[in-house]
Design brief:
Chains A, B: Its EC number is 1.4.3.-. The structure is a homodimer. Chain A is mainly beta. The first copy, chain A, contains 8 helices and 30 strands. Chain A folds into 3 domains: about 1-115, Nuclear Transport Factor 2, Chain: A, CATH 3.10.450; about 125-210, Nuclear Transport Factor 2, Chain: A (Roll), CATH 3.10.450.40; about 245-640, Copper amine oxidase, catalytic domain (Beta-galactosidase, Chain A, domain 5), CATH 2.70.98. Helices cover about 10% and strands about 40% of the residues of chain A. Chain A is globular. Residues about 1-20 and about 230-240 of chain A have low confidence and may be disordered. The interface between A and B is large, with 166 and 165 residues.
Chain lengths: ~650, ~650
């Protein structure tokens, strides 16, 4: 991969002079390689050039003002492309984190804010790779490997973020965990346990080393996984004749129009999604921006080797940085179309990620609607249509885990957001070969001899800036309550009715889902249907899960938002990352749980919905050596948004 | 439809003499037309022939002894086909309900039990049709129609079951509700409200008539729905090259082997599902029988027109009787194969239902598993496979609602059971044309001018006789509990661990799902994996829902099982219908909530899992005039059933 990066670097230096300037389609378009190069040149020519070890940790379009984007979208002068391009860049230089705003048209650094708070920006691929390689050359580590009678050439090391556990002083450090391949490419299956390595990313040195104990090494046998060879085409043909268009980053399909972008932190971002209303003869706004905001993955083993494994995949690593080049016919079906993404390396050079996102029409054999009517004399009237949807997908591989991230658009106006978890479990070595031998808490499942897969959670938190038919929205909790029949005679004694409550402030909208039945609806109180219902979109969730860690536990303090599945905040351009912007070693002083302490008004305001999809993972043997995809999803479903069903044929 | 029935009747009389005798594949095979005719002949020649108005309400294979079926399955002498065929038949004659067991080989009625308890068998299509037609000829009704200035030729009437509301004496009656088509085939959109008609099914007469008030008739405009013309083939081609076989009623696909049958009450029944274990080189049992047991659909309007609408679709009407002939390319994709079903009419004659069940391989673009590994030096190793599943589907249209009922088998050993709700809402006429005018509780949503769609629930209860690797199983609740770190130093303060509880008696296994995190696993305590885990299958549910009606309300007493989503009972051949066998006008004296009062042992016994999937339906305007399919599902997922992942290529 290191060689790959160098090759890509060389390729870009060569290509850059002749790269085509793509005309701007949309203010939220990601930065082009040409723009990235220009930004780097601006920075290299600034006062920052004197800083030691200048490394690039983030670079993307600076979030434009929402009003400006909405004005641009609605303006007929759109073609003139007068939207100024500004970038947000986070660099570390001279051991300080600089947050830069770069104006591309003016060719200058507009502002430079030095981050003095807790936490660090996401790690670069290069420093992770160096930490891994340098750890493996450390004499103490070599000694440990020799004493275990292992061959260093068969060792793979993985740097892991170390979290925060109350330390007053912090350094940019990672913890290194190592594996023995020797006969398998499934490195996670053969952990070399008992060694603690702390690696300092500033000095690029091992700063703490402990060889505490030796655990048996699980066998390589039965750990390998390979795909069978597929025959693309006949076996997995196009499912439908695709009827969507990609113009730059703007996708049109059926009545839908939306923008899709690729970002190093969130991965895929869906923006300015609108749906054409054939009755009103115009596009109506649904979602301004939606993306994964944070992913919290705490492991449930408090021992020395494992306690710190409480990952914030989005903030610490980045779902975009971890995005994988999609495999046609495997990751996406044969009818998929692909969009490339661009990332930067540690030096600020653009790297192309081919096939970062795919889009495909899906026909899974499901039924969009149907009915058979026998109530009309002398007739049996059968009707119905198969369901065809449009899926936008990316996949992030964060170490052992692969996250399949889908946004599925339906002809009904519904959006289903899906997460599929697959990949390899994190495992620890053990002397146990059978559960009969176990009398202590081992914090996981014995999935193979000498192999325990550790209990853990995944909380995938979504930022959902819904703009239901406009920016000013309210969030309504419609509770279903049992009523006794009163006031008139009825053979019935009970029924349920709806108690609607408009949630007025942030504290009202912290919702832990459970058995209490309620509908959660984002409405526009200023826009009514033909019969007077406020237009809305409803959140339909799956089986709910929330974090079970104690409130005073450090990883929970950093991810306090995972105690509730639903939050609503007033829109604020700077509030997008539920676990805080500087997530690496953060202290929980930024993020959703902190912002909402102000308990701001959320009624008839431009508001944002946050939803956390949770998985408690008790591993089982079927998850070894590879996990079958575990799916979950939520749906944003129009609820009195339209005057009537929109799935019928519009002749 | 009446003409259709007559034509089918004629067809069968003609075909019967030359129909082929299909050799018996499986003891659970449904009765063939020849067998049905033989049964009818046996009954007509018995003492029952003297009974007045003999009508057939149920006819199917009498549930064989499980031990006998299992012995037959495992026996090498299977080909000799020595399984005796016995049928269960329910007839009404001389105003009494007779439950007959007919021995086909001996050609005689083995037993005749007269049902003296409460409740009646499911209604026949013919009596429903006659109730509808005769009501429309009633002079009082004709007068009501004339006074409303309506044209009787444009009126459709629908007989509805009337439930039970504490009456001491009961008669086999239905309530008739009528609609005005005149410009639409969507009859439900134009209810003629204010008229109460009670129709006696024994005397075939209107026994109670009240014309109470007149409500405005909603307009026909905008109520019609039609499918667009599809191009089969190019637009919706085969998704995969189907690789499953159908031998009689036995389906083989991948490692799976199961039996599928069609029954007038449950609809589709999946039986003796086993999965081939390539390590053990034998089929291992998973599910003995699985099917919909009952469906409770209470409406939430306590007024005279609506209070009684508390349907038990399976017991009162029958999902098989309501099954629809599947539409190729709409209800099932182009690669589907179909199985016909046989029903009986009121005279005990066989009626063929073409395409009652479809089976198809599904490739929806999802990923079965995948991983990208960059931890092996110098390599980027990408692996994965697309997910292909096998779906067995039927669709029941019970009046206005269409239930799409799927059983999806996965290569992992997982079974996903899905329900899709579509069709037309039940609506009532109102004077309101805008929500602004409404100041009272209208028990529903104004979905169009003068049209309120009434709040209601759907509880679809499944009978799941899991036999995980054998008949003796236990049901385990694995609770996830927050633990404080104690006994050793750790920077972490908390984690969760698993507290496993084997549920010993029926009362322990009445579970209302909520926010309390737990895994529910059916295990075989007598069979361990290679590392000692008990083999199991886990129930993964969706968003939970339970009935909100008061416990002392009559419909709730009849459907008390809907207060908990999960129940476990010891296997008992006669306990299959959660709401009781004689559901029509039942008093709640039979069924799951009654049987379990004995609080029988369920540990290491042959046990049955019951799961209720619930939907609270607050209608919205998008549901009008047709509802887009609302999906829900649960999964039975192998959990330490296999020693390792089974999705990898077995070379």
């Amino acid at each position: 991969m290191n060689i790959q990066v160098i090759l890509l670097l060389l390729l870009f230096v060569t290509l850059n002079s002749c790269s085509l300037i793509k005309s701007l389609q949309h203010p939220l378009d990601p930065l082009s390689p040409k723009e990235i190069n220009k930004i780097r040149t601006i920075i290299q020519n600034s006062h920052l050039k004197t800083l030691s070890n200048l490394t690039y940790h983030f670079l993307d379009v600076e979030e434009p003002n929402k009003d400006d984007v909405l004005h641009w979208l609605s303006s007929s002068e759109r073609k003139e492309n007068r939207f100024s391009r500004r970038a947000k860049v986070v660099v570390i230089g001279g051991r300080q984190t600089h947050e830069l705003i770069v104006d591309l048209s003016k060719g200058l650094i507009e502002s430079n804010h030095v981050h003095n708070g807790h936490g660090y920006p996401s790690l670069t691929f290069e420093e992770l790779l160096q930490a891994s390689l340098l750890s493996q050359k450390d004499p103490k580590f070599l000694n440990s490997i020799t004493r275990r009678n292992l061959n260093i050439s068969q060792v793979s090391c993985l740097p892991l973020t170390k979290g925060w556990f109350g330390e007053v002083m912090s350094r940019r450090e990672v913890k290194i965990t190592c594996f023995y391949r020797n006969g398998t490419t499934n490195i996670y299956a053969r952990p070399i346990n008992g060694i603690t390595i702390v690696f300092d990313l500033e000095s690029m040195k091992v700063t703490k080393y402990m060889d505490r104990y030796r655990a048996p090494l699980p066998t390589a046998e039965g750990t390998e996984f390979h795909a069978r060879r597929l025959e693309p085409g006949p076996t997995y043909p196009n499912t439908t004749n695709s009827k969507f268009s990609i113009q730059g980053n703007v996708i049109r399909w059926g009545d839908w129009k939306f923008h899709v972008a690729f970002n190093s932190r969130a991965g895929m971002i869906i923006s300015t999604a609108s749906i054409y209303d054939s009755k009103e003869k115009r596009y109506r706004r649904v979602l301004y921006r939606g993306h994964v905001s944070e992913t919290f993955v705490p492991y449930m083993d408090p021992t020395e080797d494992w306690y710190y494994r409480t990952f914030m995949d989005v903030g610490e690593f980045g779902f975009g940085k971890a995005a994988d080049s999609l495999q046609p016919f495997i990751d996406c079906p044969g009818n998929a179309k692909f969009i490339d993404g661009y990332l930067i390396d540690a030096l600020g050079m653009p790297n192309k990620l081919p096939r970062a996102i795919c889009l495909f029409e899906r026909y899974s054999g499901d039924v969009a609607w149907r009915h058979t009517e026998i109530g009309v004399p002398g007739k049996v009237i059968r009707n119905g249509e198969p369901e065809v949807t449009l899926v936008a997908r990316m996949i992030a591989t964060v170490g052992n885990y692969d996250y399949i991230l889908d946004w599925e658009f339906r002809q009904t106006g519904s959006i289903t957001v899906g997460v599929g978890l697959t990949g390899v479990l994190e495992m620890k070595a053990t002397s146990y070969t059978s559960t009969d031998q176990i009398t202590e808490d081992v914090y996981g499942t014995l999935v193979a001899p000498n192999t325990i897969a550790v209990h853990h959670d995944h909380f995938v938190t979504y930022y959902l800036d819904l703009d239901v038919n406009g920016s000013e929205n309210s969030f309504v909790r419609s509770s279903l309550q049992t009523e006794r029949v009163r006031g008139f005679p009825s053979p019935r004694k009970s029924y349920w009715s709806i108690k609607k409550k408009v949630l007025k402030r942030e504290a009202d909208a912290k919702i832990r889902l459970g058995s209490e039945p309620a509908e959660l609806i984002m409405v526009n109180p200023n826009k009514k249907t033909n019969v007077g219902n406020p237009v809305g979109y409803r959140l339909i969730t799956g089986q709910p899960a929330y974090s079970l860690l104690a409130d005073d536990d450090y990883p929970q303090m950093r991810n306090a938002y995972t105690k509730y599945q639903v939050w609503v905040t007033p829109y604020n351009k700077s509030e997008r990352w539920a676990g805080g912007y500087y997530a690496d070693q953060s202290h929980g002083l930024d993020g959703l749980a902190v912002w909402t302490r102000r308990n701001r008004r959320i009624e008839n305001e431009d508001i944002v919905l946050w939803y956390t999809m949770g998985f408690h993972h008790v591993p089982c043997q079927e998850d070894f050596p590879i996990m079958a995809t575990l799916q979950s999803s939520f749906e944003l479903r129009p609820t009195n948004f339209f005057d009537k069903s929109t799935i019928l044929y519009k002749a």
